[in-house]
Amino acid sequence: MNMAKENHEELNLRLEKRIVLAVACLGSFLTPFMGSAINVALPAIGKEFNAAAVVLGWVATAYLLAAAVFLLPIGKLSDIWGRKRVFLIGLLIFSFASVLCALSPSISALILFRIIQAVGSAMIFSTAVAIVTSVFPIGERGWAMGITVASVYIGLSLGPFAGGFLTGLLGWRSIFLFTVPLGLAAFILVFKNIRREWADARGEAFDAAGSVLYGISLTLLMIGFSRLPSAMGILLTIASAVMFALFVRYESSIDFPVMDIRIFKANRVFTFSNMAALVHYSATFGVSFLLSLYLQYIKGLTPQQTGVILVAQPVMMALFSPMMGRLSDKIQPRIVASTGMGMTTISLFIFFFLGSTTSIPVITANLLFLGLGYSLFSSPNTNAVMSSVEKKLLGVASATLGTMRLVGQVFSMGIAMMLFALFLGGQKINPTNHDLFIQSTRFAFLIFAILCTVGIFFSLARGSMRR
């Protein structure tokens, strides 16, 4: 009798693991797919709404900024209220906002609806990795993280190709509608099949004041950074630093902070793994944005052709991430991740030499190399972060890592937009300023490469993870 009961529980646990992993993968697929698909569609959006390059950048940046602002508070809320519940609500918000984006009557409305979409995305991303960590033990966690991260890269892989195809065939609005049935399918799968809830910090008070301080400081930083080197940009950046200092002081004085500063002080692996992620995403996210514009404006390619080329990087990431995640279960993550960071640095330095005559095969080959380096870094780094904290902090750990990713992505876009403002001003990209556009792009790749070089030292400094 006991044996039969144990076998039944074992089967239920295996089924739960499979469903959780499948749903986490589907949820993790949605937002990167949307981001990479929209990058390819930006010229078409700019043409319809007559928008300049800097304004087009805000279609991506507003989404990233809003997601970064909400990710950490929502991660903490999910630890208190329940990760499954937050995940389900996030899927509904994301799907609803996607419909609104598809119906946007203006560029301003599109940016507003992207912000709403980002809230749903934050709810999905802050809980997906935490739920996977909740059900997979350490010996299996690296593999599960690899599969989850691979789904992110599958989204990135299909995004440029599907985005280019949909834009060329049905228009850019169809990209948003494409994600709606996927979000609803994930919702139904979770609602019907997963009964258990994860709320390891149930009963703790939610830090609303800290969340507001955090959101204000991050918003000021991102807006200020995008306006550098103007006087307003400098003032907003300084104001952000002041607000963040107040946030840190406040968080250190309360019992249940939205961000436990003590984790960063006492947990070397957690701290430096997150710093490495911040630098890596700051150095790499802008690559597809810049190359999408370069391939269409300078090389004269269609959105479909651009998507086929840009798919090279995320395909490598999707293929190798599960393997690298499993490798990090056997070899210290810092070794695998630092090797990947080094490869990424080399690839970015190669892109610094991009010019109007650079051949498509050279660009594609370097994207493949960049994708391999990326896969070596990301899965092991995620495994290191999530395995370095206790269970009640899994939501916060997942959200912190997600915040590093999103802040890094916003920094990356901020660098690109700042250089566009410096080199192009408020002009649209056209044949008369193609040389200036290429100069700004090359300078961005140089900054990215230098950032990634610094990131190698953060990755190595994390130390070894306890087994």
**Overall average residue pLDDT:** 82
CATH classification class of the largest domain: Mainly Alpha
Topology as a string of helices (H) and strands (E): HHHHHHHHHHHHHHHHH
Name of the CATH superfamily of the largest domain: MFS general substrate transporter like domains
- Give the low-confidence spans: none
The N- to C-terminal Cα distance equals: 35 Å
Topology, number of strands: 0
DSSP helical segment count: 17
| Portion of residues within helices | over 70%
Q: Outline, from the CA principal axes?
A: globular
Please, how many domains? 2
Known CATH architecture of the largest domain: Up-down Bundle
CATH domain fold name of the largest domain = Growth Hormone, Chain: A
Strand content: under 5%
Please outline the major beta sheet.
none
Q: Compute the CA-based radius of gyration.
A: 21 Å
Overall SS class: mainly alpha
Characterize the structure shown.
This protein has 2 domains: 18-192 and 258-461, MFS general substrate transporter like domains (Growth Hormone, Chain: A, Up-down Bundle); 207-257. Helices cover 83% and strands 0% of the residues. It contains 17 helices and no strands. By secondary structure, the protein is an all-alpha fold. It is globular. The chain has helices at 2-49, 53-81, 83-102, 107-135, 138-170, 173-193, 208-226, 231-251, 261-266, 268-284, 286-298, 303-310, 312-330, 333-351, 360-386, 394-424, 434-461.
